Each structure stands twice: as C-alpha cells, then as structure tokens.
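Tokens help. Our protein:
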Amino acid sequence: MLKKQLQYLILLWLTIVMPSTLIHAQETIDVGKTGWDVKRPVIAGACDTGCPWGELGDFVQQSMKPYGYSVIICRNCNRSYGPRLVSTNDYPPPLDEINLEDGVNVRVNARVDFGLTSSAMLSSAYRGTPGGKEGYKNLRLIAKLEDPFYYLIAVRKETGIKDFSNIKQQHLPVRIVGADAAMSTILNYYGISTDDIKSWGGKTDVTLDEAKKGNFDIVAGFLASPALNPESSWWTTLSQKFDFYFLELPENLLKQIAQQNVDAEIVEVHYGLLKGVNRRFKTLGRSGEAVFARDDTPEQAAYDIAKAIDENRGALKWFIRIYTYDTKTVWTNFGVPLHPGAQRYYREVGYMK
C-alpha cells in the first residue's frame, strides 16, 4: 500500500511540478561559427513575445535572408545591454528573472556583432554621461526606424483632479505610478516635492502590480501606446480597467521635459488613442528604434543591412507596433555617425544628397 502511495506521489510531481520547472529551465546553446565573414552575425535583440527589439530582430533576420545571411538573434541582449555588447564584441549576459518572465530561457554562446535599441539609448550610449561614463565611440548607425509613443498622465476620474495645482492646493494624498525624471520636473513646476506628497499621506513609488489592484491615483510615463508589447501594455490594461481623465500640461512645461530627452518633441494626441482619450491635446512624443553596428563592420555588410531593410520595409506594418520607414530620417540618429556602408546605400538611392 505504501509503495502505491509513493508511486502516486511521484506521478503527481511529474505531472504538476515538472512542467512548471521546465518552463523556467535555462539553457546556453552553442550556435557554431558566427560573424560577418561567414554571414552568420549575432544581433542584440529581445524577447519574441512582442518586445519591439525582438520583433524588429525577426524583421532584420528575415530581410537579410535573400542576401545569404543567417542572422542569429540574442533574445537577452536587451534593456541597456545592446550598445555595450556590440561595442566590445562581447558575449550575452547570463539569463535573469526578467528574461524568464518575458519567455526568454535560451542564451546564445556567441559574440554580438550588431544590434537593436532605441534611438535615444543609442545616442546616449555613443555620447556617454557628462562628467561620468565614457561613450562607446565605435558605434555606428545603420538605420533608424520610426516607432512613435507618447508621454501621458492619467488620473482616476473619481479623484476629481483636473490639474496638478489641485494637488498642491488641497494637499491631496495622491499615489503615483511613474515618478520618473519627467514627473519630478512636473512636480517641481507646480511647487510640489515628493516629501510633500508623503506628508499628505500619498506615495510616489507605486508599482504596476499595486496599480493593477487599484492602489493608485495617477499613472504617467513615456511609453503610452495602444500596442500590447510588454513595455506599453499596462497603459491598455489600466485604461480598460479604470476610468481615466488625461491631464494636459502647459506648453512651457512640455518644453522643459523635452529638453531632457534627445528624441522628444511636442505632438498632438488624437481622440481614441486609449480608452478615456476623448479629445485632442498636446503632449510629448518620442520615436525611433535603431539598427546599429561597430565601425569595424565590413562596409559591404552595412550596405547589405541598409538595403535589405529598405527593400523589405513593407513588412514593418504587420508587427504589434506599426513601425514606419522614413527616407528623410532613416540615416540620422541624434549625433551617432552613420556607417560608411549604409551611407553608400542611402546616397545611391537618393535619400541622402
């Protein structure tokens, strides 16, 4: 009898516990010889579950096949890793919990040759930090693709807040999701400090998990979009679950925030972008995802990437985010030099004079 019970418990473990263990299994794989010389370059991308640099990695991979390239995508070379890994021709980092949450459980054991990141992050990585970290001066732009998103501030309708001055005047104990540099500028503009909010009984470090449970009053951030990629999906999730009023900021305040972000510009949000956006109003927009490489990338390879992306640009509209290709901006990225091979292509087709 005891033996049968033991067998049953083992079977139960195999059917219930084992599958969840396998989901989180991590693996490093050897992908063989890689590099430009064998037309098997490794690209710094991201997850294949809707991450922008992941789906753009798929796009680059498919676009380069007709030119004889077998691009290998590093799915955990995302966040701030890409520019450094490309610049130093380094190996991908170890997998971490964030990778596993995004469904990435495989790490390629190969040096990274080129990459994808946001236009702003590429510019920052190239320039470095004033008085701090040196820039990666060997990075070169191949192509900049447009990918617009917005800075939005939404308040729960039941709070009655129509302006940040309401918070100041009434000492409202607001709970804020997205207390970043932009929010600090906004609070300072209205004469509010984080200590003020705490003293009024509020909170400025509300997590998304708390917000999903309704424990928040204000949500703000630069990644607003109706797309359900991991970075933006919470805007759709929260706006569908709660009734929002979207705040407008004075134009001089928008200009202050824009000065803090190399890729920001004043734009207009249109009716219906998200549930609760029931009018047009001005805010800040940012756009740009960059395909980049090192300065020692063979000129022909850079030319081939630029050409392949251009010739297959029609495929960009079929991803979760609707990317676009602008012939006036594809060859420029906030001070990052263009690779000579890419430049040769853009001059040949007349995009550059």
User: Anything to note?
Assistant: Confidence is low (pLDDT under 50) at residues 8-23. Residues 27-147+288-348 form a domain with the D-Maltodextrin-Binding Protein; domain 2 fold (CATH 3.40.190.10). The first strand starts at residue 27 and ends at 29. The two ends are 85 Å apart (CA to CA).
